[in-house]
Design brief:
- With about 675 residues, the chain is mainly β.
- It folds into 6 domains: about 130 residues, Immunoglobulin-like (Sandwich), CATH 2.60.40; about 100 residues, Immunoglobulins (Immunoglobulin-like); about 90 residues, Immunoglobulin-like; about 100 residues, Immunoglobulin-like; about 110 residues, Immunoglobulin-like, CATH 2.60.40.10; about 100 residues, Immunoglobulin-like.
- The chain contains 1 helix and 50 strands.
- A hairpin with a 2-residue loop joins strand 2 and strand 3.
- The longest helix is centred in the first third of the chain and has 10 residues.
- It starts with 9 loop residues before the first helix and ends with a strand.
Length: about 675
């Protein structure tokens, strides 16, 4: 994004926004644009540019529908501007506690610009743009000394020299501050934005004996402190003007950047001829502006092309009537390029594409699918548009184009694409012509579909990995396993897909139900339990190829047939020494899974201790815990009775699927 900053105060900024409302281009929603409407929103986080602290109660201003609106950032520095029609919005951030004012322009696109042309009239399309902003406190200071140098022996302090602190690299308004050196040649900027750095520039200077040229420097600033730019030496300006600074020499020029050139002296701007061009793309149109007749800014009307060599020619005169001519070349940064597509069966052959496959195009850089200038279009052989959805691979370098319906077999198709990278203005475009595979016979029904878990295997309450095997089908390209259950999923759901292994006569694969949380009896316990509560899951498999899908196989029904396990523990002695009072002790039962709510059967068996006494069953109460995975036996011992040495036996525990404990559980009381 190119940001143009005006040297004005915040109040003038607000007046300018009101007075220049015609610069905001808002779309009128009509059916001629699209069928539906785009409703935009701009949001982001405002932070301190030096500390990264989030700033609350920052005033955010914008102009919409001829009205100035504003909002405040919250305690996390977050702001949101909702319900914006397409258009260009100038947003102003008014800082607190002596922060500089920041301004930025954000564009909300139309539906057409983001490639949507069939949005239903009654349905709005919501488009969100993130615009974060760094603010800088006005607490930095900058000093230095300016000298004039006539020769090695005549170096004197220079008074009356204009020094400019230029913040054009930041979204700050105003972006330039000016001071003049005193009689001792010292200059001092107070209360300027505490950015990481600032570009210093002197204006041409004349001490009545000689003329001195422009000098520039990049100086680091200190938040809440004074930075020292050191000594700045002005040398006598040669008669012929020359370029003292430019931003294009590194051969990685940004595609949407402005070309900025600073000359050694004031130029006669009316005499200048400028040409910008490349061998492959011809002449580039631009707007040229001057600052103080010294700094030339060339703003191309269109983004430059990546990996391209450009030529810049300039000629003109300085204000003291000395001629300047210069021819320069520079390389733009490396851009996005096509790498691979699955449309190409072998090198240069684009036929036999599967009719039910997604189209994939891989690029050399990460793709920005949100760029509204990008576009992916698929046409059939009649040049009718095919409805598609586009997404990105995990690394964002592959565009995945998903036709909403299977393509037709044996037909020609055309794929046109324009994709942008994450570099401003960088894009790649191209066209592929390809043909789908001809019609073939759908595969036969899969046979021999059985569990492949070994002899005696049964599912348990929390089984999620199940291995199946089946006989392979001759013309299958792959297999899909579906499942439904007797609880929430009455319709078959695809739970696995496997490529065909044609070299085998029998194929085995594992289904992982952890990928499908809908097969979970209790969704909030952190454990996936597909078979709890006597749930039955029915599995079926089918084969598929280009022509379609075969019939479902016979079904396999899987249930929990594994008995639970458990243990019991005693908390205190069952021997009551008191001659007057009863005593209570407890026995805790723990299971490995959810149990049936039926109260378990239990008994006391004489096994020692007081052989004349055994605790009766009536002395016991039992209570389940809320999770039905454990319970508590509370036992009352009469006065002067001793239950220690006897055995306590529990039987008939069942899990929630009705499976009994494999054996009774016994504990000898102490």
């Amino acid at each position: 994004m190119k940001t143009k900053l005006l040297v004005i105060s915040f109040l003038i900024t607000m007046f300018f926004m009101v007075g220049c409302g015609d610069q905001i281009t808002n779309e009128t929603y009509t059916e001629a644009v699209t069928d539906g409407r785009l409703i935009g929103s701009i949001h982001g986080v405002v932070t301190d540019g030096n500390t990264n602290a989030r700033l609350n109660t920052i005033q955010v201003w914008w102009l919409a529908d001829g009205q100035i609106d504003s909002t405040l950032t919250d305690i996390l520095g977050y702001y949101s501007i909702p319900n914006l029609p397409p258009g260009s919005y100038e947003i102003t951030f008014s800082g607190k506690n002596n922060y500089a004012i920041n301004r930025v322009t954000v564009n909300v696109p139309t539906l057409q610009q983001i490639g949507i042309v069939d949005q239903p009239t009654e349905k709005d399309f919501y488009y969100s743009i993130t615009q974060d902003m760094d603010l800088y406190k006005m607490n930095a200071a900058l000093t230095g000394v300016v000298y004039t140098m006539q020769n090695d022996e005549n170096i004197n302090t220079a008074s009356g020299v204009t020094v400019i602190a230029d913040f054009s690299n930041y979204d700050i308004s105003p972006d330039k501050y000016t001071v003049t050196t005193g009689g001792d040649g010292v200059f001092l900027f107070n209360n300027i934005p505490a950015t990481q750095s600032v570009f210093l520039q002197t204006m041409p200077f004349n001490d009545s004996s000689y003329g001195y040229g422009v000098t520039t420097a990049l100086v680091s600033l200190i938040p809440n402190g004074t930075a020292n730019a050191g000594n700045i030496i002005l040398t006598i300006t040669p008669a012929t003007p020359f370029i003292i600074q430019n931003n294009y020499e590194n051969d990685d020029f940004g595609l949407t950047d402005d070309i900025v050139v600073t000359f050694s002296k004031a130029m006669d701007t009316s005499t200048f001829d400028i040409l910008l061009e490349s061998s492959n793309y011809g002449t580039v149109e631009f707007r040229a502006t001057w600052n103080n007749d010294i700094t030339l800014t060339i703003d191309p009307y269109v983004a430059l092309q990546a990996n391209e060599l450009y030529f810049l020619s300039m000629s003109g005169k300085s204000q003291d009537n000395n001629s300047f001519t210069g021819n320069y070349e520079f390389q733009t940064q490396e851009g996005i390029e096509f790498v691979w597509t699955n449309l190409e069966r072998v090198d240069g052959v684009f036929d036999q594409f599967p009719i039910d496959s997604n189209l994939e195009i891989t690029f050399s850089k990460r793709v920005d699918l949100n760029n509204y200038n990008g576009d992916v279009k698929l046409y059939d052989q009649s040049f009718a548009a095919v409805s598609v959805e586009s997404s990105l691979s995990a690394d964002s370098t592959t565009v995945i184009i998903n036709p909403l319906y299977n393509l037709e077999p044996g037909q020609d198709y055309i794929l046109n694409y324009t994709v942008y990278s994450t570099i401003d203005g960088d894009f790649d475009s191209g066209t592929f012509n390809f043909q789908t595979a001809g019609d073939i016979t759908p595969p036969d029904q899969v046979t021999g579909f059985v569990l492949d878990m070994g002899d005696g295997w049964f599912a348990d309450w929390n089984t999620t990995l199940i291995t199946f095997k089946w006989n392979t089908v001759a013309n299958a390209d792959g297999y899909i396993i579906y499942a439904k259950d007797s609880y929430n999923n009455s319709d078959l759901i695809q739970v696995a897909s496997f490529d065909a292994q044609d070299y085998l006569t029998e194929q085995n694969e594992t289904v992982d139900l952890r990928m499908y949380p809908q097969f979970d009896y209790y969704v909030d316990d952190g454990i996936q339990t597909p078979f709890t509560g006597d749930i039955e899951i029915t599995f079926k498999i089918l084969a598929y190829n280009y022509a379609g899908e075969g019939a479902f196989s016979s079904a396999i029904v899987v249930t929990d047939q594994t008995a639970p396990t458990g243990l019991i523990t005693q908390d205190s002695s069952s021997n009551n020494f008191s001659t007057t009072d009863t005593k209570i002790f407890t026995i805790t039962f723990l299971s490995n899974e959810y149990l049936d709510s039926t109260v378990p059967t239990y008994a006391f068996i004489e096994n020692g201790g007081d052989r004349s006494y055994v605790l009766p069953s009536s002395a016991v109460t039992f209570k389940w815990d809320s999770g039905m995975m454990s319970g508590l036996f509370t036992i009352t011992v009469p006065a002067s009775k001793n239950g220690s040495g006897d055995n306590f036996v529990t039987i008939a525990f069942k899990d929630s699927s009705g499976n009994n404990l494999e054996q009774s559980i016994l504990i000898t009381l102490f």
